[in-house]
Amino acid sequence: MDPVTAVGLAGVILQFVELGAKVTKRVKDFSSAVDGTPKAFKQIRTELPLIVDGLRRIQRNIDTGSIDKETQEVLLPVVIGCLSETEHLDTLLEKALPLGGDSSWDRRIKALRSLAYDKKIEEIAESLDRYTKSLVFHQVIDNFNSTRLEQQPPPPYTDPFWLVPFDRNSSFVGRDDIFADIDRAFTVQEGSQPKAALCGLGGIGKSQVALEYCYRRRNKGDRCSIFWVNAATVARFEESFNRIASECGITSPDSAKSDAALLLKNWLETQHVGPWIIVVDNVDDKDAFFRGKMATGKAPSECIPHCQNGSLLFTTRSRDIAVDVANPEIPITIHELGKAEGLNLIRKRLRGDYSEDLVFALLQELEYIPLAITQAVAFMVKRQRTIQQYLQQYRKSDATKAKFLNYEFSDHARPENTLESVAKTWKLSFESIRNSNRRAADLLCLINFFQHQGIPAILLQDEDEAEDDFDFQEAAALLKAFSFIDENDSVFSTHRLVQLATRWWLEEEVPEDVDRWAFEALKSIASQFPEPSSRPEPEYFKLGEILLPHAELILQYQFKATNENSELMKAKLLASSGRYIHWSGNYDEARIRFERSFEIRYKHLGEKHVDTMTSMGLLGWTLSIFDKDLLALPILKRLVENRREVLGEDDPRTIDSLSDLATAIALTEDYAESETMQREALARSERILGLRNNDTLNCMAHLAEVLDEQGKAQEAAKLLREVYEIKKDLLGHLHPDVLVVEHNLAFMLSEDNEKTEEAFSLYESNLRNKREVLGPDHSETFVTAYNLIIKLAMSDRVIEARELCEQCLAEASDGPHKSNPRSQEWLTKIDGIRQRLMDVDNDEQAPVAGHQDSDMLRN
To answer: Which of 87-91, 135-139, 785-789 has the highest mean pLDDT?
Structure first.
C-alpha cells in the first residue's frame, strides 16, 4: 500500500494544509518581488487557498462524524492528487523564486528563468483547478443535503431514553427544598444551558437526591431523556459515555469506542430531539475530570454536551468543583437531614415501635447524616439489635464509635454493589485533601483534638512559624469546600463523626502522629488560654469561656508515650484553666487542677522553679481562702521560704505569698500573728508597687479582714472602704474584683447597727451588679443574695426575704452554673431559709439569724 494512502484521509489533509500554506506564501512572495509574473502563478495564488479552506472544512466534518467511511474513500484520491501536484509546484518554486539577499540583477535572471517553467506550472495549475472543481462539487452536494435535511420535518418522535442504572430508593425522604432549588437552577434564559451542581459532605445524600430527581422528572411526562454518568474516574466516565452511545444507537456494540464520547456529545447537541438531562455523578477528582485523558485525547469535561435543550446535574463533594461545573449558577449545598426527615428515614428503614425521644437520641449521635443513619440501621437489622442496644454499645468509647463507622454495608445506588462505610467514604476525601494541600490535611488532624464546635482561629494558626494568612485561609477553604468544617466569623466547627473518622484514618495511616497532633493541640490551647489573674478584664472571661471546652477535652487525652514536654504543657493549662474556673465559681475543681499542676511541675522542675512555685501558690491560696483548710499552712510557709530564696524578699510574688500565709494563719485563730504578717506584706507592697497597685490593695483587704476578726470594726471598715473606692476608680464598678470587695464591705457594715442603711444599699447594688456581670446563678451572686436575705429577715422584712429566695431558686433552674457544686451549696442554704420563712408573718422576728456563716461569705 502507498504510504500516503496508509495514513488515511485525515492524515493526507493535514499534510496538504501544512504544505499548501507554505506554497501559498511562496507564490505570494514571488508575485510581490517580480513584475509580470506568469499567468499560471496568479491562478495558483487564487485557487490554492480555496483548496486549503475546503479541506479544512472536510476535516472538521470528519471530526464530528458527519462524513462516513465510503465518502472518505472517494475523497482520498482527490486529496492525494492535490498533495502530489502541490509538492511538484513546491520543487519548481524552490528553483525559480529569488532569495531575499539576491541582487536586483539576480532577481531579474531568476524571473526570466521562471518563464522556462511556465508550461509545467500551467499543467500544475490545470490539475489543481480540476481538483478544486471536484471538491467544490462535493461541498455543494453536501450543503444541499444538509439544507434538505433541515427543511424536512423531524422524524416521528421515539420514546425518550431512560439510562439510569439504579432503581428508585423506596426509603428516600424529604429534601423538597433541594428539588425546588434544582428546578430554579434549571429555569434559565433562552439560549442558556440549564445547569445545577449538588455539593456536600460525603454520605450526605447527593446521589440519592439526584436519583430521586430523575424519577420525579420522568414521571412528569414531558418526554425527557435522562442519562446517568459516573465521573468518579476517567475510566468510569468513558465507560458511561460508551454505554450511552451504544444504547442510543450512535455506535454499534462491536465498533471502536475511541470516538464514542465525542460522537455522543455531537449527537446530544445537534440531533437528539426533545429535552434531556445528564446526571454527572461523583465529580470528586478535579484533576481526573478537567485534565484526565480519555481514548479520544480529550478530558471528560471537554465531552460534556452543551445546548439549551439539555440540562446538566452534577454531584460532587467539593464546593470548589461545584462552582466550576455549575458556573454561572450557585452550587446547591446539601446539609444534614432535618428532625422530621431523620425520624421518617428511621421509621421507613427500621421496624419497631420506638419512641420519638429514643429515635432522636440515635439521630443526634449520628448527627442526622444519611449514610451514618443507613449504616446504623443496616447493623441493627443484621445483628438484630434494638436502638437501645445499639446506643449502649456505640457510646462505650470513641474507639467503639470508630468501629461502627467502619462497619461495611451495601448502600442503595452505589456503583457495582460495592460495600460502603462512613469511614471509607470520608477516607477518599481525606486522601484527596492530603494530596492537594498538605496544610489542609494537617489542619484537619489538629481540629480532631478540639471540641467539634466553637473552635477559634487562634487555636489553628501556627504562631511559631508565623504562618502566612493566605496559606491558612486556603487550607481552611479546602476543608470547607469538602464540608468537613464550617466557619462563622473566624470560629470553626466540624462534625463529631468527622473527628472520629479522622482519628481512625490517622491511626491507620500514621499511628505515631496521633500523639504529635494531640501535643500540638495541647500546646495551642495552653499558649492561648489567658494567664492566671487576680484582676481579670472582660476579655479574660470572654476568651476563657471560648477556650475552656477545648481545654477540658485535651486534658482528658492520654498520651501513649508520656514525656516531659507534654506533662509540663498540661501543667501550664491546668493552672491557667483552674484560675478561670475559680472565677466561674467552681472552687473545688479549681483546687484539684492547682494540685495536679503542682505535682507535675514538682516532679519535672523541682520545688524551687518559678513555675512550680506559681502552682504551689495557687494551691495554697485556694486551700486557705475557700476551703478553710489548715493544709494550706505548711504549703504557704514553704512557698514563702522558697520565694525569698529564689526571688528575694521584695519580689511582688514573695509579698503575695506572705499575705496568703497571713490569711492561712488566721485560720488557726492566731490573729495577732496574722495581723503582723499582713502589715509587713502591705508595707513591702506599698513601698515596691505603690498604694494604687492591685496587689497592694489586696494586702489591705486581707488586713481589714484580720482586723474585723479581732473586733476592730471601725479600723477594718475604714481600710476596706479605701480599698473599695480605689479599686472602683481603677477598674470600674462592674469589675469582678470590685464586686468582691463591695460585698465584703457590705457584710462588714451590716454588723454595725448604725450602718444598716448603707449596708442594705451596698448589698442591693452588689446583687444587681453580680447578676449583670457574673450571672444570676453564679455562686458569688448567691453569696450576696444569701446575706441580703438574712439581713432582710432580721430587719422584719420577711416577705421581701421570701420573695428574694424564690427569685434565686427560679433563676437558677436553667442557668449555666446550675451544676456547679458551690452554686448548689448556696441554693440549698437559700431554700432552707425559704422553708423557714414560709410560716413567718411580716410582723414577727424571723428565726434565721443563727444561719449566717461569716467565714463562708468572705471572698
So the answer is: 785-789
Side-chain half-sphere CA neighbours of 168 within 13 A:
11
What's the DSSP call for residue 225?
Answer: E
Q: Are 461 and 314 in contact (CB under 8 A)?
A: no
Rounded distance between C-alpha atoms, residue 301 and residue 321, angstroms: 12
Between strands 332-333 and 225-230, the pairing is unpaired
Question: 3-class DSSP state for residue 289?
Answer: helix
Q: Give the C-alpha separation, 44 to 303, whole Å.
A: 40
Tally of residues, the chain:
859
- Three-state DSSP at 313 gives strand
At 603, list the grid cell.
516532679
How, if at all, do strands 491-494 and 485-488 pair? Answer: antiparallel
Q: Which residues pair with 485 in a beta bridge?
A: 494
For cell 435535511, what's the residue? Answer: 149
Round to whole Å and give the CA distance between 199 and 210: 11
Contact 179, 220 (CB under 8 A): no
In the structure grid, which three cell numbers stand for residue 751, read together?
Answer: 454588723
662-677 pLDDT, tens digit each: 999 998 999 999 999 9
What is the residue type of 598? F
Classify the C-alpha dihedral 636-642-647-649 as positive or negative.
positive
Peptide bond into 328 cis (omega under 30): yes
In the predicted structure, residue 552 carries a pLDDT above the cut 80: yes
CA pair distance 494, 487, nearest whole angstrom: 9
DSSP for 240-284 reads HHHHHHHHTTSS-TTS--TTHHHHHHHHHHHT--S-EEEEEE---
Q: Is the pTM of this model over 0.85?
A: no
Is the separation of the CB atoms in 847 and 839 below 8 Å?
no
Query: Which residues are CB-neighbours of 508 under 8 A, at least 6 positions away?
Result: none
Cell numbers for 832: 432552707
